[in-house]
Prior knowledge:
There is one protein chain. By secondary structure, the protein is an alpha+beta fold. It folds into two domains: 188 residues, 2-Layer Sandwich (BirA Bifunctional Protein, domain 2); 46 residues, SH3 type barrels (Roll), CATH 2.30.30.100. The chain is 19% helix and 28% strand. β9 and β10 form a beta hairpin. The longest helix is centred in the C-terminal third of the chain and has 18 residues.
Amino acid sequence: MRPKPDHGPLGERSVTPGEPWLPVEVFDRLGSTNDEVRAHPRAWRVVVAERQDAGRGRLGRSWTTTPGTGLAVSVLVPPPASGPAWAPLLAGLAVHRAVLEVADLPTVLKWPNDVLVPSDGDRKLAGLLCEWTPQGVVVGLGLNVGTRREDLPLDTATSLHAAGASGSSGTQGAPNTPAVDRASVLTAYLVHLARLLSDDTGPGGAVQAAYAEACSTVGREVEVHEPGGGVLTGMATGVDDAGRLAVRTAEGRYAVSAGDVVHVRSR
Length: 267
């Protein structure tokens, strides 16, 4: 039997991103929010799960969700004007802007789909997974909000709470009380994502420039672990019009469309 949306902790808090988004659907439990959207696709649909049992990250990694402490959300949007490869990049930029607006926490983007917190050792705050369908792009987001440091699955992960973020009121929460409201983060993310998709005028536009400014991969020495097993080592010099990472190595210049990127050193 297909699960039905309910009124869990997020459902009790009004999430009203407005047009073009459909009303936010909050499920108590799902295998995967991406799977739910792909199974019943509607443009601008928003699906949130309090508990996600089979969430996926890139390269087959898992992403689990502890009820009440994070955001597991998937949406269905039209492909960006700049091309489908820009979907995770624009979604990451939307997270970057939403977290700064709501939690007053600066973040940076790691190409192609991670959001990092420089003040917390470049630990990962959020990850994105995009899947393409005939109806549009399914954009899945996992973002750690109130998870305590000791409850994070990896030392390389962080949350808004663990990173010391303040709430929209600008005040710190008690040591074990999340200061940032999940519904506020979700609303801001949806508003920024819709705005970026609307403002995207194609290659070379202001949206692409904004992404490059927020992307800390650009200007760093990187190792790119390619899907076929090869490794490219060199300087990430930019993101091209197709959303590929430009890497300059000793052997030449490459445009990377997929791979696991490791930052070797800071800018």
